[in-house]
Structures
1.
Amino acid sequence: STWGFQNSGKGTAGMLSALLLLFLSTDPSPPNIVIIFADDYGWGDLGANGYDLPSDTPNLDHLATQGIRFTDFHATPLCTPSRAQLLTGRLAPRTGVHTNFQVDSKFGLNLTEITLGDFLVEKGYATHMIGKWHLGHQPHYHPTFRGFETYLGVPYSIDMGCVDPIPWLSPSTGASVPIINPCLTSTHTRLRPNNTHPLPNGDKRNNSSRTFPSPTPYPTDTRHPAIPLYNSTQNCGGFDDCSRTISKQPLDLTTLADTYAQSAVEFITAQSRTKQPFFLYLALSQTHAPLAYDKRWLNSSAHHTMWFDTVREMDNTIGTVLDALKASGVFENTLVFATSDNGPQLSQCEWSGHVGPWVGSYEQTMHPGGSAGKGTTWEGGHRTFGIVTWPGKIQPGVVSHALTSTLDIFPTIASVIGAELPNDRHYDGVDLSPILFNGAEKVRDFLFLVDCVSASPNLTALRYNNFSVYWQTNAHDGCATHFENTITVHDPPLVFDLTTDPEQSTPITLSPDEMRIVQSALDDKWKDIFNSFRTSVSFDGGGAPYWACCNPTHPDCRC
C-alpha cells in the first residue's frame, strides 16, 4: 500500500492506539500547544526526510523521532495566505487572503475570521506569539487584537524593508546575502503628511494622537522603512497606534533568532509555574531571505554554506524552545506541531532551500529558467515537512504518508482539547486524531490547492490521493531569471502520478471515471464555499502614513 506507517504493523498500532485513547479520555489537564512555523523552508531541508544529507537539523530530526513525521504535508505557496490558512483552518476562497499584505497595507485578515489564538483564549489558554505575523499590522489587525495576549516579532517578511549592514557576514557588499538595502546612515528628515489610521466601525477609542508633520518633499530615496521589532501586550497596550509598541527599528538580524528564543523560554518558564494551559505560536523569520545569523554560526554547518549556517541557527532556536519545555516540566503535556509556510524561494539561487525530489520538471518545458518552488502550486511550492509530537500520547518514531495539511492543525487542536469548532462557518481542515492516536492510514482523498497569482482567490489545482491535478500552472522567478504573467491554463487538466513521478515530468491521462470524480470534487468544494460563510479582504495600501514606524521624523523610522 502507498499509505501507512513504516515502523509497525496495523495490529500493534491498533492495540497501542486503544490505550492512548483511554489515557486521553482520563487525563484531566488540557495540553499546552506549541506551533513552530519556519519560513521558506523546503521539504528537502529536513535531515530526517533523508534528502539533503548530512543533516544540519539535529533538533528537528530528534523531534521527529519522538512523534509522527509526515512525508506528504502541505501548506500554501505564499507567506500571507499560508499564515491565514494555518490560523483559520480555512482556504483562501473562504478568507479572501490569496496574496501578501504589504508594508503600507491599511487592512489585514478580516476581523470576522476566528484565529486559533481567538479560539484558545476563549478556552482559557494563555497565548503568546513570536515572530512573523504578516496578516496586517494596523490596529485591530495586529496579533494582539487577534487572540494573542502578548507578541514579540516582525509584522511581515524580513526583506520588506532595510536593515543595518553586517560587514563581517559579507565583506564585499557590506550587507547580508543576498544583497539587501542597508538603512540610511544620514540623519536628514523625511516627514510625512498629516494622517490618522482609520479604525473599524464601532471602535470608540480616541484616534487623534497619531498625526504627522505637515507635508514636505520626500528625498529621492523612497524605499520601505526599516524592519521593526514589536514587543506588544494585549490590544497594543491600549495605544491607538501599534507602532508605539515597536521596541527597535531597524531590528538586528544577527540577534533576532536569540531574541525569539529568549522570549519563548521566558513565556514557557513563567507559564509552567501556573496551572493555566498555554499556546505558543513561534513563527520563525528564518530561513526567509536575507540570510543572517549570529557570528557563532559562521561556518557551523555540515554543508559549509551560508544557507545551512542559517539552518543551523534556526534549528538551535527550536532546540532551545524544546529544552525549555523539558526543563520546565511541561514537555510531557505539550502537543507540538512543526512545519513551514511554503517551499523554498528558488530565485535566491544558492541562498535558498531545497524542494527534495519535487522539482516540477514539466514547468521547465513551458518556461525554461523558471522555478517550481515558492509561489507556485507545483508540488515543491507547498509540500513541506510536518512533525507532530505529544509524549505518552503519540507513538514515537512513526512515519506517515497520509495526505495532510496546515489546514488540519486547527481542527485537530479543537478535537484534542474537547472543544467544538464554531458552527457558523465551514472548515477545510480535518481532524488528524485518527492518525495521531489511532494508527489510521489516511484522513482524506482530496486536498485543494490555492493559486496565489490570480487576481482573486482561486483553486486551480488539487491532490487526489497520489495524483496531482492542474487546471492552471505558473512559473515563479528562477535563479537569475524573472517571470511575469506566466500563467498557463490546461484543458484538459495536467495530471501527474507522484508515486512513480515525484519530479512531475510526464503527464498522464486519468480514466473518464477518475476525471469525473476529480471534477465533481472540485465542483462540490466551490459550491460549499459559495453557499457558506466567507469573508473578503482589501489589499489596499496607503503609503508612508501606514508604515510600521516608531519615529516618523527619520527617513528609515529609526528609533
2.
Amino acid sequence: YQGSHEDNEIYALRHHRRLHHREERRMRWLRSGSKPKTEEKKEEKKETDPLLPSDSSTSQGPLLKSWDLGFAEWLNNLQGHFGSRLLVLLFTVQHLLKGFASAFGQQAEPYLFRAYSVPAPQMQILSGVSLLPFALKPLIGLLSDILPIQGYRKAPYMLISCAIGTVGYLVVGLVPQSHLPITWLVVCLFAVNMQISACDLLSEAKYSEKMRETPSQGPALLTYVWFGLNFFSLLAVLSSGPVIHNLGPKACYLLAALAGGSVLWSVIAGQLEEIKLTSEDISAIWKKFALQKEACFLSVLMLGVTIGLVATGLFSHSPRTNVIVSVILAVIVLVSFSLVLSPVIAKLNAFCIIQSILSFPLTGATYYFFTDTAEQYPEGPHFSEFFYNSVLGGVVGVVSLLGIFSYQRYFSHWSYRSLLVTTNILLSLLHLLDIVLFTRTNLRIGLPDRVFVLGASALTVVVGQWFWMPQVVMLAGLCPKGMEASMYALLAGCHNFGMIVAANCGALLLDYLEVRPRGSPGESAQFDNLWKASLTSSVMPMVTVLLLFWLIPATSQRENLIGSGEDEATTGSWWRHWFPREAARAEP
C-alpha cells in the first residue's frame, strides 16, 4: 500500500477495527457455546463431518490469543499510532545497527587495545576519543535541518555516514595490527561510531517528532526502541565470546558491518517517509533558523569542544592534561547552554551534564582486573573470553530487558523527580558492592567471583534501566516542534560529552592511585588501590541528588515538558532577558 503516511494510518486503523469486531463476535460464540448461522450453514453442506465437534477447535482461539502475553496487541497498537514504516526504520537503526553492530564492536574493542599493550588510563582516554562522534550530534542535526541534500534532510546524511562507517569496519577487520598504528585504529573506530551516531540521531529525531503528536504513547514507543535494542545487543554479546576466542576481535567488526548495512536498505526503501522539500520550504527553514541563532551557536560550540577533545586525546598521553582540557570545555558548555536555552530545558540539560560527568567510569582497569591470566594477576578472577563476554554480558542483556519491562509496567507513571532521586541513591549503594570484589573480601567469606559478579551486575543493570529510561523520555520531550533533530542532538550531545569528560576524569583517578594495568606478567600491585577508585566513583553521583529538587520538575512522564510553539527552545532564557533587543529581532 503506497499511500501517504496519513493514509497508511487510516488504513491500519480500519483494518485493526475490523479484526477487533471479528474477534468480539468469535469470543461471544465461544462463551455462548452456539455457532453463528454462517457456520451452521457450512456444516449442513458437509455430510462427512463428525457428529460431535472437536474440542481443539474451541480451545485453540484463546490459546493463540494469549501465548504471546499481549505482545502482538501491543505491537498492533504501536503500528496504529505510529505506522509500520517507522517501526521498520527503528528496527534497522536502533535494533540492528545501534543494538547488534555497536555491541559487537564494544565487546571487541578492549581486546584490540590489549593487543597494543595500552595501559588502563590511556585505554579510557582513547576509547573516549572514539566515542566523540556522539558529541558531534548537534552538528549533524544542524546540517540535516538547514542544509537538505537534493531536497531531503535525513536520508542523504544517513547514506554518507553508512559509507564512512563501512570503511572503518573493513579497515579494522581486515588490516593486520602490524600495518595499523594505534592512532589509525582510533580513527577507524571514530568512523564506525560516526555511522552509529548519525543514523541514531536522525532516527531519534523522527520518533521524537511522532511522539510529540501522540505524547501518551511515548513511553510505549520508547519501550519498543530500547527493548529491541537490548535484545539484539544481547544476541551480539552472547555470540561475541566464541567469536573473539576462535576468530579474534577483528572478526567482530566484519560481522558488525553486515548488520550495519541493513540501514542502507531501510533508507533506500523509503522507511523514513521523507517528503522532498521545495525551494520555498528550504527558504522557510532558513528563516526559521535565523530566528534561532542560539541553537546554531550551540551546535558550532559542540563542534569546537569535540575537536579540542579529539586533538588532546590523540596527541597527549597525560591523563592530567586531558582532564584539565575536558573540565575547561565542560564549564564552557554548561554555562553556554544554561544561558541561551529556556529555563526548563536549561535545568534538565544541566542535570544530564553534571550527572554524566560525576559518574567516573573505571572500565579500563576493571577489564584487566577480570581478564588477566594467572600469570599476570595470580589473585584475580581470571575470566575467559566466553564468560566475560557471553555469560556475564548475556546475563546483563537479559536483566536489561527485565529492567525495561519493569519500568514500563511499574515506573512509567512516576514523576521524573521521584524516580530519578530513588534510582540515583540505589545505584550508588549498589556500586559500593564492587569494593567487596576489588578487595577480594568475597573470597574470604566463601563467595566465588562468578556468583558475586553475576548477582551484583544483575541488580545494578535493572536499577540502571529504571534510572536511564526516564531520561530518554525527558530528552525526547524537550524537542520543540520543527527543531527535533537539532535540539535532540544538542541535548544528547551534551549527555555524551559529559560521559567522555567522565571517562577522562576516571583515567586521572586511576593514574593518581597508580592503577595502571596493561596485561603484563606479575602486575598484581597495579590493583591494590582499585577499591579506592571504586569508592570515589560510587559516591560522586550522590552529589546530583541534592540538585535534583531544583533541576528536575515533579512532572509526570506522560506530560509534555514544554509548549507546542516553535520558539520554546530559547523563550525566557537569560540571554534574551539580558539582551531584549536581540530577543525582539528573533521574534517572527
3.
Amino acid sequence: MDPNPSAQDVHRCDLCETAIVHSYCDFCHVNLCKPCILDHILDGYDKHKIVPFQERRSTLIYPKCGTHPNKSCELQCKDCYICVCSSCMASDQHKGHSFAEVSEVYMTKKVIIHQDSEELKIRISPSYEKIARDLENQLANLDGGYEKLATTISKQGEQWHREIDIVINKTKTEIYEIKGKHKDILQKHLREVKQVQSLIKQTLLALNEIEKSTEVSSTIQYTSKIREFSKPPLKVQISLPNFISKPISREKLYSLFGQVTPLSTATEENDLSLNMLNQPYTSVRELLDEPELVATIQTGYTDLRSVICLNEDKILTCTWTNNVKCFNIKGSLLQTIRTKSGENTKDIAVDCDGDVLYSEGVTRSVNKTRIGQTEELIRLQGWNPNQMCVTSTGDLLVTMYSDNYTQSKVVRYSGSTEKQTIQFDGKGKPLYSGNGIIKYITENRNHDICVADLTAGAVVVVNQDGKLRWRYTGHPSVTKNGPFQPFGITTDSQSRILTADHNNHCINILDQNGQFLRCIDNCDVKYPFGICVDNYDNLFVCEFFSGNVKKIQYLK
C-alpha cells in the first residue's frame, strides 16, 4: 500500500471546501482552515470550541442550565439525580446534597457504553449470527429431510404390497388345493356309478338273450337283480367353498402401516440465555483497593431484609410486612405491591419476564405478581418456604424447612413443577441446618448453588447436580468481633461470591472455589442483611435496623 496519502485522503475545510483543514469546532463538529476560523466564530465566540484538528471531539459539551440559561451544568446532584450548575448547587433546593462532576459521570457512562459495544460485537451479535445460521441450515435441509421421510413411507407401501400379494397367492393356492379334493371326490363317485351302469348294461344283454332263448335251464337259473339295482348310489352334493372377506378398517391399517410422529418443537437455551443478555460483557475486573460508598437510599423501613436490582435506577425491597416496595436510586417510592393474602412476605425475587415473586410463611406459598394481578405459583404441604432466587435458565430455587423445624432443603422449580431436591451430601448427612432460620440463596455463573446457612455459620456450595463442593465458615481476619454470621448472599460477573456478615458489619468476597479474597468493611455498613449486585457489579446492601440500602462500588 502506498504510504503517501492521496488527494482524496486529505481532510478539507467544511466552509470553503478547498483549503486543508487546520482546526476543528468541537461544538459544531465542522472542519476549519485557518482563514475560516474567524468567519465561523463571528456569531458568538463563547459558543464555539476551536481545537487542533488532531484533538477533535475532545471537548465535553455540557447541557445548559434550565434555571440559569447563561450557565452550563457541570455537576450532578447525587440526591436529586439531575445535572445542575454552580448557582443551582448553592440554592436552597440542593442544600445539604452531595454532588459529582458531570465529567466523571460522563466517563463512567462512556466505559459502560464501551462495554456494551464490546459485548454486542464480541458476544451477542456473533451468538445471534450463529443462531441465524443454524436456522438457515435447518431450512436448507428441510426438503431433503421430508423427501427421505416420504421415501421411507413409499418403501413401507411397497413392502405392504409384496406382503398382500403373498397373502393373495397363498389364499388362491388353498382354493386350488380344495378344488383338487373336490374333483377327486366327484370323480370317485362317477366311477362307482359308471361301474353299476356297466353291470346294468350287461344284465340287459343277458336278459335279452334269455327272452329270445327256449332253453329251459337258463331261464330257470335266472336270478333277478332288480332289487340290487333299484337302490341307487347316494347323491353327492359338494358345496363350493366361500371366501369370507373381513371388513377393511382404515384406522387399523393406518396403525399397522406405521405412524408419523407429530411435529415436536423443543426449545432450549442458546449460549446466550435471557439472564446473560441482561449482564454486561464480562471482561476481567479487579477489586478496588478501597471500595467506595456511592449512594445511600432511605426506604423508611425498619427490619429491612431483602433487596433486588431491577435495573441501574430501580430497586425492589421487602421486610417482614405485607408489602413489597420499589424505589429509584434517589430513594423516591415508585410502587407498592401488597400481598394478595395480606400476610407478611419472607423473601422476594424477579423472574426472567420481570414479574415479581414473593414467598409467604403463613400460607406456605410462593406467589407471582404481574401487571397488578397476583397468582399463586407454589403451595407447600408439610414444608414452609424461606428465601429464593431465579436461576439463569429461569428456574426457581427455594430454601425451605419442615413443619417440625428439624429439616431444611433446597427445591428447584420450573414454573409450578418440582424438578430437583437438594438435602443430603454423598454420605447421607444433611447439607443444611434443620431449622426455620433464614437461608439466603443464589446461583453462580458456573451454575453452583450457594446457600448462606446462618445457624451453621457457613456458606454451603453445591454444583447444579446437588453435590457438595465446599463450605466456607469465615476468615480469621474478619471474625474479630464475633463468629461468622452469613445473611444475604449474591454473585457477580466474575463468579465471585459476596455474603453479608451481619455480626461483623462487613461483606466477605470469595472466589468461586471458596477462597477468601477480601472483605468490604470501610463503607460504614451496619448489620447487613440482604444483598444483591446490579448488571454493572454495583453492590446493594440492606441495613437491617436503619432501613437504608447502601450502593457500593467495589470493582475497578
